[in-house]
Amino acid sequence: MNNSNYITVSEVNKYIKDIINNDLLLKKVYLRGEISNFKAHSRGHYYFTLKDENSRIAAVMFAFNNKNLKFVPYDGMKVLVTGKIDVYEASGSYQIYVEDMSPDGIGALYVAFEELKKKLNNEGLFDRSKKKKIPRIPRRIGIVTSPTGAAIKDILTTIKRRYPVCETILFPALVQGEEAAKTIADKIKLANEVKDIYNIDTLIVGRGGGSLEDLWPFNEEVVARAIYASSIPVISAVGHEIDITISDYVADLRAPTPTAAGELAVPDINTIITYLDTARTRSYNALNNIISINSKKLDALKNSYILTKPMSMYEIKEQKLDTLLDNLNKSINLVLENSKTKLFTLSNSYILNNPNMLYKYQSQKLNYVISKLEVLNPLNTLSRGYAIMKKDNKVVSSLNDIEKDDIVTITLKDGNIESKVIGKGEIDGSC
Fold first, then answer.
1. Which of 65, 248, 375, 384 counts the most CB atoms within 10 A of its CB?
2. Across the beta sheet with 407-412, what order do the strands follow?
3. Contact (CB, 8 A) for 220 and 227
4. What is the pTM of this model?
5. Does the pLDDT at position 206 exceed 80?
6. 288: which residues sit within 8 A by CB, 6+ positions away?
7. Angle, nearest 10°, between helix axes 258-265 and 150-162?
């Protein structure tokens, strides 16, 4: 066989690639399918398989195409894709190169909304405990919105009607289009940078009603993080009452409309005036009541016995002083009389006049005690022929204290005898 009839694998794959590339129907295809084996490469490219009930096709979506997606694809997600069919010559496999993709059945914006909402909620940006209080009576309010929209007119009209003394500062921003989100975030940051200079108490961020696409800048992550980072309390006022954005969740307070934002930002001056009038009336009545009570106390004090007859207090005190002095003199005299009596008794006592008799008396008492001690002295008892028997250094006073064969010590007047008990007997009474 002639070898010239054989071609290389690369030539086959290139031939097939050329056929596919020349097929106009494959240059722009629209596919519906379910994602499987999804992988996001570190360089940003998406690789996955697109399948239906009976078949599947490999798919790739390069980073320069997927960077504008509002959602991150996942396994099991049903999608609509647009792209071209081509051959990857290195493996000889054909695949679809996806240029655009959207969720099948629900809009991409909705998916993006839910994913960002979940992400920020998990990070704590919606935490109610971190919400700042809106000042009850603000000095100056910052407003981030379009300078030409209906929202700014509604907000300013409401503030002027409810609380005309409050000042406002407009931070003009784009509220629609690709650059809107960045502009809104930048103006929020600017308001925080100058808040101390202009005494900004509250910040209103929003716009009038519109479609989901029109309101989308307020669903962007950059705006949400700018609101969360704001040290100025933020009121979100986006669209109509039924419109809910990510900004509403992050803000310290949500207003259903721009008009409602103006109402929430400032108090009603008529209510304040009524409150002040009521407070003034209450203060006036309270002050009059205090004055009346103290006037009565003053009148009572003026008519008191002490002030009307001051000398009477002096006279009473003088009388009490005289009584005390009389009692003191009586006490002193009584003490002196008792002392004189004791002194006289002592000076005439028998002991003082006869000291030798005291000595003789005390000597007789001492001799009597000595004689008693002599009688009780055990040595004197021993000298009369008696003995003291001890067992284990304890005096034996009864037969019950010893037993046969016990060793006892017998103390005489001139020494001790060690003895063994060979028996016990009762006193027969003949001795």
1. 248
2. 394-395, 388-391, 407-412, 415-420
3. no
4. 0.51
5. yes
6. none
7. 30
Query: Given 3-state DSSP classes, what are the helix, strand and coil percentages for the chain, each rounded to the nearest 5?
Result: 50, 20, 30
Two structure tokens written together for 273: 């005036």
How distant is the alpha carbon of residue 4 from its chain centre?
86
Which has more confidence, 373 or 287? 287
Ranges of H-type helices in 251-397: 258-265, 269-302, 305-308, 310-347, 350-353, 355-376, 378-383
In the chain, what are the domains?
Answer: 7-105 (2.40.50.140), 113-126+138-267 (3.40.50.280), 387-420 (no CATH)
| pLDDT tens, position by position, 379-411 | 666 667 677 888 888 887 777 888 888 888 888
Amino acid identity of residue 56, one-letter, is: R
Q: Nearest 5°: CA angle at 24, between 18 and 25?
A: 115
Quote the pLDDT of residue 349. 66
What amino acid occupies position 387? Answer: A
Element housing 88 (H / E): strand 78-88
d(CA 230, CA 214): 24
What pLDDT, in 10s, does the model give residues 46-94? 999 999 989 999 999 999 999 888 788 888 888 999 999 998 888 888 9
Q: Is 313 helix (H, G, I), strand (E, B) or coil?
A: helix
Return the closest-CA partner of residue 166 out of 266, 270, 264: 266
